[in-house]
Write a structure and sequence with these properties.
There is one protein chain. With 400 residues, the chain is of the alpha/beta class. It folds into two domains: 251 residues, Type I PLP-dependent aspartate aminotransferase-like (Major domain) (Aspartate Aminotransferase, domain 2), CATH 3.40.640; 106 residues, Aspartate Aminotransferase, domain 1. It has 14 helices and twelve strands. Strands 1-9-8-5-4-2-3 form a seven-stranded mixed β-sheet, with helices on both faces. A three-stranded antiparallel β-sheet has the order 10-11-12, covered by helices on one side. Strands 6-7 form a two-stranded antiparallel sheet. A hairpin with a 2-residue loop joins strand 6 and strand 7. Helix 1 runs antiparallel to helix 9, helix 3 packs parallel to helix 9 and helix 6 packs parallel to helix 7. The chain starts with 8 loop residues before the first helix and ends with a helix.
């Protein structure tokens, strides 16, 4: 549960600062708020933390994806390459802006395979969305290299890897834009919430304007009296979310450090299981350690191990059978059942391509995810809990 595990006095203090002013809204009411601008402060602190030029708080990670894609001018007729292993929101956001998500394979990191990108490029491809799944980095340098070679924009989906790095650089800051999620089960949480980051002032401005009905946020002009360049919508982060985010961000390094410590202990116990191999992490130092992934030689043994661990009270996830994180299991996507009864944008005449969501097109994902288990790593793990996990793993290992 990461950040949700440590909610306490710090968050209460920041929230009370807001409640005492009575101003819960992101903008305006300068006299009443008495200098309290929590979202603005959160954005500035977040940008500084990950060394990004600009950061924009929004209502969710899903909203962050839509805002970023809109700023990148992705829309009807375009295709966006997305890995087969991700949360459904990554695909939904592409559809929300009128584009079509194109499914690509994964590699041993269980993230987007850079070598499969060029195979999935068509004349309609506009962008690539690498996803740092379960808190560990993709081969993001190679992905960016391939994208630039083919004149594609890169939007990093780092919803699950806040605070993670790759070769010393923070995840989410390699591409043209990056996004983060702060929902209740993320590394840090604001309940709901998200962040868009970029070093490009034009992309930031378009995101900023779009997320607030086109307001250009000119500090010298009263709200609603500014000039406007584009139409927009409402994806503003509220002051209460910003307040909680500020407190959580200050302890992000602590959260990751505790997860790494706990993960190392469990990994050591699992390393004694014959035939077990761990997820390939391109830069282990940059792992945010929210999950521990390990695989077995075949799918049958994997399910056997999963049941045995479950019998010992140790929960794991087999994502090939998960209904939310593996594209071939999404019956609504496969049937093109969007919120629009006409199945837009799949039926948009502007789209001339043909997306392939078949299992045959992602052989690595079909193999690796079918024999890989994930164990969630918590911040707060008592000695008793850790001992029960280790004892359970040792018991299971003797079965092999």
């Amino acid at each position: 549960m990461a950040g949700a595990e440590i909610i306490g006095k710090e968050e209460i203090k920041e929230v009370m600062d807001v409640l005492e002013t009575g101003v819960l809204f992101r903008y305006g009411f300068d006299n009443e708020r008495k200098g309290i601008f929590k979202v603005r402060e959160f954005e500035e602190a977040f940008a500084k933390y990950c060394s990004a030029g600009y950061a924009l708080g929004v209502t969710s990670g899903s909203a962050a994806l839509k805002v970023a894609l809109t700023a990148m001018d992705v829309g009807p007729g375009d295709e966006v390459i997305v890995p087969a292993f991700t949360f459904v929101a990554t695909y939904e956001a592409v559809l929300e802006v009128g584009a079509i998500p194109v499914m690509a394979d994964i590699d041993g990191s269980l993230n987007l395979d850079p070598d499969d990108i060029e195979a999935k490029i068509t004349p309609f491809t506009k962008a690539v969305i690498p996803v740092h799944m379960c808190g560990a980095p993709a081969r993001i340098d190679k992905i960016v290299e391939v994208a630039k070679k083919n004149n594609l924009m890169v939007l990093e989906d780092n919803a699950q890897g806040c605070g993670g790095t790759y070769k010393g650089k923070y995840l989410g800051t390699f591409g043209d834009m990056g996004i983060f999620s702060f929902d209740y089960v993320k590394t840090i949480t604001t309940g709901e919430g998200g962040m868009v980051v970029t070093d490009n002032i034009d992309l930031y401005n378009r995101s900023d304007w779009y997320h607030d009905h086109g307001h250009d946020h000119n500090p010298n002009v009263g709200r609603a009296m500014e000039g406007r360049s584009i139409l927009g919508s409402n994806f503003r982060m509220g002051e209460l979310q910003g307040a909680v985010g500020l407190a959580q961000l200050r302890r992000l390094d602590y959260v990751i450090a505790e997860q790494k410590k706990n993960k190392a202990v469990i990994k050591e116990a699992l390393s004694k299981v014959d035939g077990l191999k761990f997820r390939d992490i391109p830069d282990p130092d940059g792992d945010s350690a929210t999950f521990l992934g390990f695989n077995l030689p075949d799918a049958g043994l994997t399910k056997k191990i999963q049941k045995a661990l479950s019998d010992e009270g140790i929960g794991t996830v087999l994502f090939k059978e998960n209904l939310w994180h593996y594209v071939p299991n999404w019956e609504h996507l496969l049937s093109q059942s969007t919120a629009n009864s006409k199945k837009y944008p799949f039926t948009n005449p502007m789209y001339k391509g043909k997306a392939d969501y078949s299992r045959a097109s992602i052989p690595k994902a079909e193999d690796i995810l079918g024999r890989t288990l994930f164990m969630q790593i918590f911040v707060n793990m008592s000695e008793e809990k850790m001992k029960s996990i280790i004892d359970g793993i040792e018991k299971v290992s003797k079965m092999l």
